[in-house]
Design brief:
about 170 residues, binds zinc ion, 6 helices
């Protein structure tokens, strides 16, 4: 009977010799901080400090450079602009085709080629519109986002956790 009790004591550690480390740990009482109220900006700052990936970035997009070949236009730095937007060229082209009302449009080695005449300024503002719709996060305004398709619906998801449904092209 007494042997049983001893064994149990050993298991629970109740009769173990004094351990200064353990004692120290126990002596450390939990610290309760005063509840603090943060402003939205302060919270955002703290969030970015913890998640630098989500920090607001700005686009570094060059203005469109065009070459006219008879009735056709070649947008020569189209690939570069899509890379800057981090979006699929086919998706950007689909958007431009709808916005410009042009049917003939194709991605070639030289750039985006289409039949018709466009102004650089108009294309630049279309790129900005595209970015506002399909790249910039609605919640944090960051551009570290991606497009995701779920159940046929298109969503813009961000590293900040925001998820917004966007229009299909
Ligand atoms: Zn975000």
């Amino acid at each position: 009977m007494s042997a049983d009790v001893d064994a149990r004591n050993d298991d629970t550690g109740d009769l173990k010799p004094f351990d200064p480390k353990r004692k120290k740990k126990r002596a450390c009482a939990p610290v309760y901080l005063e509840p603090q109220i943060y402003t939205y900006d302060e919270m955002l700052k703290m969030f970015y400090a913890k998640c630098p990936d989500a920090a607001i970035q700005t686009f570094k997009l060059p203005p469109p450079t065009l070459a006219i070949h008879g009735p056709h236009t070649c947008w020569m730095n189209f690939t570069k602009i899509c890379a800057g937007l981090k979006r699929d060229q086919v998706h950007v082209m689909g958007y431009l085709r709808t916005e410009l009302g042009l049917k003939e449009m194709s991605i070639t080695d030289r750039g985006l080629v289409y039949r018709g005449k466009t102004k650089e300024r108009d294309l630049e503002s279309l790129v900005k519109k595209y970015a506002a719709e399909y790249v910039t996060c609605r919640a944090c305004r960051g551009i570290n986002t991606r497009l995701e398709r779920k159940n046929r619906l298109l969503f813009l998801t961000c590293v900040c956790g925001s998820k917004t449904r966007v229009e299909d092209i």
